[in-house]
Give the backbone structure.
Amino acid sequence: DPYANEPQRLPALIVRSQKPMNSETPMELLAASIVTPNELFYVRNHLPVPQVDPAAYRLRIEGEGVRSLELSLEELKTKFKRHTITATLQCTGNRRNEFNRTGRVVKGLEWEGGSISTAVFTGVRLRDVLLAAGLEDDDPEVQHIQFEGLDADMAGATYGASIEVDKAMSPHGDVLLAYEMNSAPLPADHGFPLRAVVPGVAGCRSVKWLGKIVASSEESHSFWQRRDYKAFGPNTDWDNVDWDAAPAIQAMPVTSQICEPAVGAVVEDDEVTIKGYAWSGGGQGIIRVDVSADGGKTWHNAELQKVPQKRGRGWAWALWQATIPLPKGFTGQLELVCKATDENYNTQPENAAPIWNLRGVNCNSWHRVPVTVQ
Ligand code: MTE
């Protein structure tokens, strides 16, 4: 069994698949703190967790425009400047199940809104390592930085993905090769001993158990870069999809989620306290979250809790909370709704059906939670 040596996991995680392990963080725990504890951070694995000996570990850097390099963990930690960021990682399939509820089924793990988490990551800047390997800014030969994981299938094929070189080399892009997560060594499930952390970008590009970095004129040839993690229009189905026609998802659209109360909760008061998260890709910080207790007819502002971040480098989500009045004397079912706006004034679409796509990615419609008022 290639899954015989998997790490221990907390029973609190909501498992969507055992082998490979895919599990989401329970809603009420997500909303409890800006930084998600390591044991509660969502897990998205495509393959068995590889066992890596940190003493024997070497990161390989090769490709166009660079000198081939091999770096031990010790060299990474001592030869390069330490850098820390607080960043949210989100799976492109977060909230996928909402597409299934439109009546048109999508293919993929049935995620609710818990395949997203936030941590303080520490490591070295990818830019510094690429510069040390001789890569020059704006080298016309190099358009993509490819990452290869050490996790492999039975045929030896490894997980891989790539990002654009401009993101990788930007001094303000904050792409890390991280060896710590929330001040502890990276846990096995999250890429021990080294992972890429590409803040503001879909989680699938933050390659764990990083074995190799390749500078290239081309995107990664991996299945996950070229035949998955892309979004199409609602007219595209499995029998007419042309994977090459859409770009790989990098930054994701603005989204938000009500974490409390839970779907179907009973509210016995004339007001209700709503809590949740909001996040946008590309470093666009959240500037506002609007909440409604009548399905979106009237709105209130939520109070935001954020970490200090510069404009354009808003890598971490905002948590939010609002206590709003319920209609006087009302009993019965109500729909709580939230929608977020990012610093580019992008906001969320009202419904999931018009953004339905065959792979069920980028679900970011208003989040709706039906509750009963007694
Ligand atoms: N890296 C490797 N090597 N193997 C993987 O399966 N999954 C990717 C990414 N990096 C993956 C990987 C996906 S799809 C996501 S969403 C994030 O890791 C999840 O990171 P996490 O498990 O630390 O939450």
User: Anything to note?
Assistant: The longest strand covers residues 332-342. The pocket of MTE is lined by residues 41-47, 89, 91, 149, 151, 159, 189-190, 203-204, 206-209 (CB under 6 Å). The mean pLDDT is 97.
